[in-house]
Every structure is written in structure tokens, then in C-alpha cells.
């Protein structure tokens, strides 16, 4: 008997699959899309974080950096007393420098470090020895992404400069004029010294995890190599009689202590700590030690989270992790609701078959197992497909973004086991639960009750009238169908709502990025040329180089990092922008006295108009009133006029930016090349270069939202198709009845379209409204530290989302309407087979 029952149920399952093949495929696809996104984003977050941690682990990245203003040999001994067993400390000279158009830090050490050390791809030639070496960032060897990059080669020349303008060496340099060689120059009369060596080694370095185009690069050099190339520079420019004296007193000239007989003494200590170390407590100990010294030479104590290279990538890791919950939740919700609605309607449609099976003696338990097996299999297949595709597809797509900005190890395959298992259990568990609830109700009925179609009860009865004479018949028929299947109708609305909200959110995030970029472009970056300076020059010196050019205007600005506060218990790091009183580059009008503060800074410091903001510039403390608050995407900080009275006692401004307007746009490239050739220019760019840089910065969010938009469109198509197909099949009996009564195909089609499109329209309308708050939730969980979002969705986005969702619904319903002719009246009207 059991064998016969099994055969019967097996044949019934095969027949059910054939009859509902497209719906079953839709269920599998919906499940696969939702799971692909959820598991794929989790895999991407895990892979990305794993790759970052690999860099930090192999490079043994430091946990704490102690930077000093001057050298004291007792400092390292005292800091050692604060360390626990298993912890270590190393010293180095950390020297800001420039190499061509790149900002670099020359890191001078006695020997190859063991903390924050070279790792991975290391190449070197025979010129590198244990105590005489140089290792250049691998990205500087390969970076040719823009016209201002230098492509170095192993064995080729490597030149770098460091600024000495702040040491006031003019008096000492004047005494050296008589010792300058013929063909040489008095290098101490300049603002910077340029040293040249050969590239004898290349490396990956944990502090170079962000590529050179987006962050400074660490170049590792031995003390002996620095001594050699510095002496060669002196011998090239000065008489032999003075070289030894100059070499011996170089540290005095350059402001460094030479108690240990080193050319350049350490100004930074890197500490590797135990994993369970209380870093805040250690920082307090170190800071207290320096505060109690008679001469406090501490500059700053910084942990990983405060290092620029760490902050950027840490923000992206957090973004990747946040995206695993926000978007997939909506996909999950829509997918689960649609799948469960389809399964429940399928079971309800089979009530006559359930009655027949019971009449034939099949047990309730076997019937329940049959339906649970069918639904579990469908959900399992969809989940399995998603769990296979997701960890392969999503990390590969999003990895392209990370490859643009970061230098990371090769990406491997990673399957998030925990989330994969939880997803499978969740989907199958929900499917079994709903199947059990729905099937249990039907199975509990008597066979005679199950074999009769479910009767529809109406609260109101109206007098019989000729059906032909009923006005608005299609509309009333659609309303009647919606009313008697209210639960299913709500599911249709929710499914369409979710897809529409996802579309609005995805395109809205892109709108927000574009709106913010355009806002800053119009207000702050509209100059035809922006020149970034790397060395201090006076106005007169800059005028000599610029006045020969044909420019509509040019002006000198200051962009400087600073710390600002309203009260000392709440201090933030931000930027101060000092602009001419009549600036043509910055298009914000405000009084000469006071400052304009960006909205993000105002919110961080709880500033309002009339409050006082305190900040530091050039080691001098200033205070000024807030006279206005402006909105900015990237240009965040506060703006002050150069002529403000707070600067009356300040020394000459150290200009960092030149803004210029072109008279002849055809000369733009020529002028870019001219400015790039000047030794004190770090970078020359146009507004397009800034847009490209900002787009690269936002590429992580753009790539993720593009992936989500594609998935949302696919999910929308499949959901609408599935719901429309389900609705059509449920209406086969009604369609047959209307055909018997003489209604033509057009009249029947109108009824079906009105019902389906009415529900779609309601779902789209609500989805359009919810798209904006959904976008806010996504972006607030994906903050990029360098920008402040200006939330905005263009009207065309709403139009596009409406047309896409509603258009797909119309197209699918019209295609399905072609099946009306294929509805067989006799078979559809049968109550019992």
C-alpha cells in the first residue's frame, strides 16, 4: 500500500511540476536572487576584511605610533618600561617628502624593521645590503594612472625633496657662498633639498595599503644610505675643505639632535602590543610622561584608528559589512513574501486533489509530507543556487573597486558558512512552517468538502440584472477579485512596493553622490586650474612665475588641516580654508569678519550662528564667530577671509593652493604641463580631475548600489511575472465562465489588467514614497569619512522607477493575456475530476 501511495504522490508531483513549471522556476529565481545578494555581500565583506588583515599581519603593522618634535635618548627607555611581556618597540625617522607629484614619507631606520616591515612582493638588486638599502613602494613602480605620475624602475634614479624653509637657514647659508663649487649651488639658500639615489629595492608595506594616487607612500631607507647620498650632494656643490664641517653640523642646521652620532635621529617610535592590551591606558601613561618632562617634546600619540591609511580602508570595511544587512533585508522580505504567497496559493488551488487523495485512502501524514517535500525542494534549489553564485560573483564585482584604491593580496574564494547555513535553515524552515499551516487546514477537511470548490461569501446581495447591462463591469470584476483575495492582494502590493523602493534607493544613492559633487563643483571647484603647492613660496615669488601666463584671474588660498572646538571637551580634526576677501574661486558670500562653517562640522561641534569656534593655524591659536553654515559634499571645514582681523598679528600665510581661470581653454594642457614642471608644485588639475578623484573615492558605494540596482530590476521582473502568472491561473475558472457568458477577449483582458495594474500602482506609489527614507537608512549606515552626504533624489529617478516597474507589469500582463484563448471552458469549470 505504501509503495502504491508513494507512486501516486510521485506522479502527482511530476504532474504538478509540469503544470506549474514557470511558477516554480520563478520561485527558484526569486530565492536565488535574494540569497545571492545576502550571502554574496557577506562573502565580499569577509574576503575584503581577510585581505586587509593579511596585509597587516604579514607586515606586522604597529598598534601605536609615538611621534616627537625632537629627539631625547631617554624617551625610548622610558616607554619600554610601560610595555608588557611580549610587546616591542622600534624607532625611526619619519620625514615628510615629495617625489615628483607624489607625497611620500622617507622612513629612516638602522636595519630592516620587524614592526611595520616590508612584506609580500619584494624585489632588490645587489646594491642593497644589510645596512645600506632603499625600498620604494611597489605602487610607485607601477602607478601610471594619470599624467602626473612617475614610473620608477628597479635600478633607475629616485629623487626626493624635503622642506627646509621653516629652519631659517638664510644667515648660515650666506656664509657658505664663497665655498660653492663652480657649476654647483648653495643648496641651503633654497626652500627644499633634493636628494637622489637609485631604486635598489621595491616592497609592499602595511602603511602603503592605500595606493599612491590616493595617499602618501612610505619609502624605507637605511641610515647609511641617507648618509651616503647626503654627503654626495654636499661634495657635488661645495669645496672639499668645507664638506666635512657641513656634514658634521648638518643635524644642527636642520634642527635635529645628534647626541648619538647619527645624521638624523629618530622622531617616531612604533609599538607592537599584545592583542588584549588596554591601548587607552598606555596612551595616558606615555602622554603623562611627556607632560612631566621639563621640555615636552611630544607631538602626538596615535593608534591605528587615527592613522590616515587605516581610517580610509577601515571605513570601506565597515561599509562592506553594513551593506550585508541593509539591502539584503528588503530582498529577503520581498522574496520570502512572494514565495510564501505563491506556495500557499498553489496548495489552496489543489484542495480538490487533496480531497481526492483522502477519498482514495492516502493518509493525512503522507499528503503533508508530499507538499512539504515539494516546497522544501523548490526553496532548497533556489537557496543552493544563490549560495553557489553569491560568494563567486559579488566579491569579484566589488573587488574591482578595491583594486582601484588599495594594494591587497590576491582574492580567494570564501564561503560564509554560518550565514550560508542560517540562510538555508531560515528559508526552508519558513517554507515548511507556512506549508504546514496552509496544508493542515485543507487536509483537516472531509474529502467531500475538499472536493468542492471553496465558496465565496458576499456581505451584500444586489438585485439580479442583465450582466451585459452592468456598467463598468471590468472595474467591478477586478474590485471583486481583489476583495475576495485580500491577503494575496496585499502580498502583491508588498512585493511591488519592495522592488520599487529598492530601485528608488539604488538610483537615489547615485543621485546623492552626483548632486553632492555638482554642488561642490559649482561652489568650490569651478576654477579652470587648481595648483597644489608642496613648498612655501611668497606671493612675490609666485607672481613671478604666474604673471607671464595669460589668465583671466588667479588667487592664492590656504587649505590646512587643523583641530577645532567649541568647548575643549569636544575637539575634531577638520580643514580651515583661508581665501581672498573677493574670491572668484569660492562662490559663497559672507562678511569679512567671522567664518562660514560646513554643516557637517557644525553638527559635530553643535555650532550655531553666533557661536565661537576655536582652531589652530601655523601653531597659533585663533577664535572667530560663526556667521553662517553652508552645505558641502567634500569641501568640509570652515572658511575665513584672508583679511579677517583675527590674522592681523599672523605671519605670512603659507599658501597651499592656486586657483586660476583660463582665458583660452585650448591652452589648458599647456598650462598644466607648465605648472607640473615647477619644483614647488605637487599637482596641477582641472575640475574634471577632481570629479574623477571624488568618483574614485565613492566607487565603493557606486559599485555596490549598481549591483543592487541590477538585482532589484531582476527581482522586480521575476516577482511581477510570478504574481501575474499566479493571478492568471487562479482566474482560469472566472475566465472560462465569462467566455461561456459571451464576453470577448478584450473585456476579459481589461478585467485582469485592471486588477493586476491597480495592485501594482498602489505598490509602486508606496514604494516611491518609501524609497527616500530607505536611502537615508542605507547611507547613514555607510558613512564615508571624507564626505558629507547631501541627500537628494532627482525627479527623473521617480519617473524612471515608476515607468520601469509599471511598464514591466503592463508588458507581462499583456503577454500572459495571450493565454486567454487557451483556457478550456469545460475543463476549467469542472468541480471534481
Automatic annotation (TrEMBL):
| Segments traversing the membrane | 21-41, 325-348, 369-393, 413-439, 490-509, 703-723, 752-775, 795-816
| UniProt keywords, alphabetically | Cell membrane, Membrane, Transmembrane, Transmembrane helix
Domain ABC3 transporter permease C-terminal: from-to ranges: 326-441, 710-822
Secretion signal span? none
Can you cite an annotated GO cellular component? plasma membrane
Please report the record's description of how this protein sits within the membrane.
Multi-pass membrane protein
- Where, per UniProt, does this protein localize? Cell membrane
| Pfam families registered for this protein in UniProt | FtsX
Q: What is its main location?
A: membrane
Stated name of the protein = FtsX-like permease family protein
Tell me what organism the protein belongs to. Anaeroplasma bactoclasticum
Amino acid at each position: 500500500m505504501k509503495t502504491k501511495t508513494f507512486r501516486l504522490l510521485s506522479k502527482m508531483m511530476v504532474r504538478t511540476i509540469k503544470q506549474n513549471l514557470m511558477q516554480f522556476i520563478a520561485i527558484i529565481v526569486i530565492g536565488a536572487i535574494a540569497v545571492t545578494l545576502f550571502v554574496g555581500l557577506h562573502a565580499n565583506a569577509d574576503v575584503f576584511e581577510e585581505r586587509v588583515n593579511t596585509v597587516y599581519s604579514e607586515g606586522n603593522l604597529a598598534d601605536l605610533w609615538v611621534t616627537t618634535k625632537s629627539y631625547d635618548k631617554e624617551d625610548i627607555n622610558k616607554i619600554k618600561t610601560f610595555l608588557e611581556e611580549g610587546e616591542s618597540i622600534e624607532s625611526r625617522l619619519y620625514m615628510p617628502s615629495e617625489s615628483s607629484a607624489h607625497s611620500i614619507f622617507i622612513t629612516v631606520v638602522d636595519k630592516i624593521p620587524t614592526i611595520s616591515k616590508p612584506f609580500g612582493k619584494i624585489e632588490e638588486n645587489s646594491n642593497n645590503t644589510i645596512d645600506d638599502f632603499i625600498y620604494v613602494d611597489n605602487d610607485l613602480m607601477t602607478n601610471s594612472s594619470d599624467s602626473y605620475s612617475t614610473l620608477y624602475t628597479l635600478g633607475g634614479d629616485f629623487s626626493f625633496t624635503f622642506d627646509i624653509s621653516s629652519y631659517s637657514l638664510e644667515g648660515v647659508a650666506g656664509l657658505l657662498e664663497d665655498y660653492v663649487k663652480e657649476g654647483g649651488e648653495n643648496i641651503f639658500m633654497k626652500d627644499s633639498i633634493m636628494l637622489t639615489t637609485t631604486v635598489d629595492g621595491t616592497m609592499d608595506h602595511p602603511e602603503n595599503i592605500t595606493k599612491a594616487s590616493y595617499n602618501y607612500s612610505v619609502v624605507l631607507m637605511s641610515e647609511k644610505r641617507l648618509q651616503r647620498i647626503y654627503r654626495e650632494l654636499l661634495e657635488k656643490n661645495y669645496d672639499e675643505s668645507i664638506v666635512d664641517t657641513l656634514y658634521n653640523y648638518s643635524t644642527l642646521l636642520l634642527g635635529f639632535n645628534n647626541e648619538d652620532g647619527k645624521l638624523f635621529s629618530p622622531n617616531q617610535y612604533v609599538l607592537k602590543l599584545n592583542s588584549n592590551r588596554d591601548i587607552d591606558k598606555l596612551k595616558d601613561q606615555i602622554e603623562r610622561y611627556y607632560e612631566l618632562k621639563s621640555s615636552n617634546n611630544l607631538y602626538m600619540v596615535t593608534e591605528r584608528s587615527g592613522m590616515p591609511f587605516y581610517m580610509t580602508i577601515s571605513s570601506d570595511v565597515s561599509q562592506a559589512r553594513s551593506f550585508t544587512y541593509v539591502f539584503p533585508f528588503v530582498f529577503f522580505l520581498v522574496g520570502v513574501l512572494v514565495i510564501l504567497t505563491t506556495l500557499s496559493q498553489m496548495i489552496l488551488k489543489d484542495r480538490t486533489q487533496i480531497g481526492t487523495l483522502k477519498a482514495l485512502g492516502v493518509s493525512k501524514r503522507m499528503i503533508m509530507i508530499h507538499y512539504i517535500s515539494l516546497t522544501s525542494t523548490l526553496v532548497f534549489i533556489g537557496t543552493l543556487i544563490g549560495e553557489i553564485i553569491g560568494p563567486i560573483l559579488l566579491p569579484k564585482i566589488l573587488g574591482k573597486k578595491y583594486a582601484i584604491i588599495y594594494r591587497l593580496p590576491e582574492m580567494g574564494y570564501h564561503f560564509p558558512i554560518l550565514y550560508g547555513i542560517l540562510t538555508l535553515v531560515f528559508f526552508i524552515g519558513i517554507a515548511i512552517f507556512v506549508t504546514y499551516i496552509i496544508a493542515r487546514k485543507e487536509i483537516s477537511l472531509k474529502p467531500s468538502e475538499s472536493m468542492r470548490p471553496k465558496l465565496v461569501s458576499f456581505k451584500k446581495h444586489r438585485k439580479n440584472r442583465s450582466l451585459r447591462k452592468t456598467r463598468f463591469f471590468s472595474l467591478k470584476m477586478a474590485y471583486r477579485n481583489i476583495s475576495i483575495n485580500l491577503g494575496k492582494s496585499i502580498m502583491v502590493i508588498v512585493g511591488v512596493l519592495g522592488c520599487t523602493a529598492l530601485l528608488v534607493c539604488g538610483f537615489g544613492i547615485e543621485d546623492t553622490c552626483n548632486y553632492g559633487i555638482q554642488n561642490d563643483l559649482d561652489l568650490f571647484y569651478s576654477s579652470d586650474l587648481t595648483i597644489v603647492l608642496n613648498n612655501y613660496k611668497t606671493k612675490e615669488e609666485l607672481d613671478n612665475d604666474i604673471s607671464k601666463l595669460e589668465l583671466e584671474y588667479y588667487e592664492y588660498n590656504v587649505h590646512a588641516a587643523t583641530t577645532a572646538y567649541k568647548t575643549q571637551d569636544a575637539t575634531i580634526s577638520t580643514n580651515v580654508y583661508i581665501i581672498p576677501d573677493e574670491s572668484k574661486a569660492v562662490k559663497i558670500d559672507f562678511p569679512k569678519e567671522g567664518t562660514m562653517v560646513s554643516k557637517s562640522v557644525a553638527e559635530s561641534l553643535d555650532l550655531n550662528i553666533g557661536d565661537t569656534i576655536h582652531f589652530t593655524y601655523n601653531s597659533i591659536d585663533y577664535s572667530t564667530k560663526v556667521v553662517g553654515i553652508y552645505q558641502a559634499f567634500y569641501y568640509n571645514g570652515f572658511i575665513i577671509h584672508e583679511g579677517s582681523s583675527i590674522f592681523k598679528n599672523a605671519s605670512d600665510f603659507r599658501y597651499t593652493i592656486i586657483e586660476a581661470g583660463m582665458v583660452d581653454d585650448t591652452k589648458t594642457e599647456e598650462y598644466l604641463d607648465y605648472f607640473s614642471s615647477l619644483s614647488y608644485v605637487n599637482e596641477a588639475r582641472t575640475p574634471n580631475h577632481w570629479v574623477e578623484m571624488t568618483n574614485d573615492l565613492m566607487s565603493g558605494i557606486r559599485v555596490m548600489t549598481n549591483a543592487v540596482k541590477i538585482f532589484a530590476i531582476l527581482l522586480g521582473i521575476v516577482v511581477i511575472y510570478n504574481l501575474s502568472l499566479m493571478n492568471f491561473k487562479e482566474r482560469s475558472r472566472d475566465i472560462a465562465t465569462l467566455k461561456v457568458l459571451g464576453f470577448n477577449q478584450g473585456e476579459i483582458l481589461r478585467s485582469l489588467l485592471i486588477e493586476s495594474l491597480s495592485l501594482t500602482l498602489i505598490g509602486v506609489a508606496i514604494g516611491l514614497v518609501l524609497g527616500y527614507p530607505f536611502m537615508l537608512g542605507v547611507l547613514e549606515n555607510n558613512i564615508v569619512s571624507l564626505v558629507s552626504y547631501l541627500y537628494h533624489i532627482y525627479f527623473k529617478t521617480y519617473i524612471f522607477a515608476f515607468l520601469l516597474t509599471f511598464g514591466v507589469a503592463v508588458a507581462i500582463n499583456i503577454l500572459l493575456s495571450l493565454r486567454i484563448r487557451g483556457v478550456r471552458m469545460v475543463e476549467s469549470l469542472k468541480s471534481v475530476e
